[in-house]
Description:
By secondary structure, the protein is an all-alpha fold. The chain has one domain (2-198, 205-434). It has 13 helices and no strands. It has helices at 2-34, 39-59, 63-104, 116-141, 145-168, 172-195, 214-245, 248-262, 266-281, 285-321, 329-354, 362-411, 423-434.
Amino acid sequence: MKKNRSSIVRDSLNTFGTNAIGAVITIISSFLVLNRVQPSIKGLYNTVQLWGGGFSSILGLTLNSAVTYFVARYTIKNTGYTIKKLTLGISAAIAVIGTLVVILFRGSASFYETPVPYLAAIVIYAVSSFVLNISTCVLRGENKFKSYNMLLLLQKVLVTLLAVAVFLRPSAAVWVWGTVAISIFLILLSLYFVKRWNGPQPQPAPADDIPVHTGSMVKYSLKSHVSTVLNYLNMQVGNYIVQGRFGTAIFGVYNTAYTLMQQVWILPDAVSVVIMTRIASMQEQQDKQKLTIISCKIVTYITTMSAVLLVWVSNLLVPVIFPKYVGALGPLKYLIVGAILISYAKVLNNSIAAYGRPELNIIPTALGIASNLVFSFLFIPLYDVNGVAMATSASLSLQGLVSIVIFCTFTKTPFYRLFIPTKSEIAMVKNIFKK
């Protein structure tokens, strides 16, 4: 367990460091772009991201979760053929269904400001996002976090170079098609990393050294998919509402607040990425439980401090550096509350999935999206765009709390252990970081 724990800390810190550097690069990119482009241009770019990401998440059947789990447990030797077959089939489905949807809704409120070339970009973006997600999940399942982090960092660098191009030529076309080109390049690079090995390939446990068939992977994917779709909708429903109801320009401003909020998830995302593969490969339930509990505490403590700092810095700098987007500060102060509590769900959901019970994540995500819709109905008539942020924040908070209840019930963990550190945990953290 000690060796496993050390590797978890190492990979988590490396992933966190990569994400932190990426966040700094994102800020630099934002500085270049937001001082140059109008909110309407950013809104058009965000529309491609929002709908393309939606098609990828909703139609992708959460194959990425199954890929991570099965590769970690059975290795690529026993899963490679099935992953290729499913990736090709689902990519084709995304392309066909996505095309039909954008054609069908072309004249709706969501797309009446979106030119035809960007409707095509939505579909291409959706397919490339899905394939890139699958290929990087193979790297995660193989614990190739050095290559995985290299891809993340390279992506941020390329996005910054694209931001320079957008700064020189403020154009939604340059921004959108440049993003698609970056995704395609990263897919090719990630496939190279999947094929590349410096040493012997890892071997599965004797009991797991069997070919994984399509049915097994699809079954796991579908168990995860309901909660994934609901979680996606809960995270993004506010963006859809603003884009459809308030127009492209206001959507560009609101999405800036949402993007700022996401920066406090650097550590939760890093830990959740690493923790799933490690827990899936552990044999002792007690080890799984201990790892999840201490991860939750560290993540939430740091996320809370980061959230407070983010709001303070944003209020100080946005009016000076990004005056066109000062309207983002209103929604941000509401969104940030939910951003803290959802950090629990980010870790716990991956832990529960690694236990082999991803269907348990349906409960918190279902309650989250249901409450989001109810709160949106109540708050938007009173507070407009700020009401969208309030509804999103309240639903994320509820989702985080319910995830805690689910984990504590499933693992028979006392509720307080996810909040209050013990002396042994403090000593363990000190020992780990001393090493």
